[in-house]
Design goal:
The protein has 131 residues and is α+β, with helices and mostly antiparallel strands. It has one domain. Strands 1, 2, 3, 4, 5 and 6 form a 6-stranded mixed beta sheet that branches. β5, α2 and β6 form a beta-alpha-beta unit.
Length: 131
């Protein structure tokens, strides 16, 4: 291999390495979080792989203290989730349904940025999602 080919190959490897090196994540969020469910006592679903009932209805409220998604500042945005985890959330990572509601003060740019983050945060595949 000629010297200029070696330099070109080395340069290409450095460019690929730099492009694949993880930098700042695409999104990040710190938030306050409150959760409640349909159980009469502390939710037993946390300690079991299946829901204790044929359904597990929940409400979750989130207020973002600081965060971003791309160039969108998420600080101060608020949203609520209500839904039913069903009985497969712990074994098959599937939830029955979820409704996401945004506080009116959360602007469209924040809502659009938060939507995919919300679905990834809980790691479930939802049977039905509404906003």
């Amino acid at each position: 291999m000629k010297r200029w080919q070696q330099i070109t190959l080395l340069s290409l490897c450095v460019i690929v390495l730099l492009a694949s090196t993880p930098g700042k994540p695409a999104w990040r969020m710190k938030a306050d979080y409150v959760e409640a469910c349909s159980c009469h006592l502390f939710c037993p679903c946390y300690f079991n792989k299946h829901a204790e009932h044929p359904h597990c209805e929940f409400n979750m409220a989130v207020k973002v203290r600081e965060g971003y998604s791309g160039n969108t500042n998420l600080a101060g945005s608020k949203y609520w989730l209500t839904g039913d985890l069903g009985d497969e959330w712990g074994t098959n990572h599937k939830g029955e349904w979820v409704v996401v509601s945004f506080d009116p003060s959360t602007n469209k740019e924040q809502r659009d940025a938060l939507a995919p983050m919300i679905l990834k945060t809980y790691g479930l595949e939802w049977g039905d999602v509404k906003v």
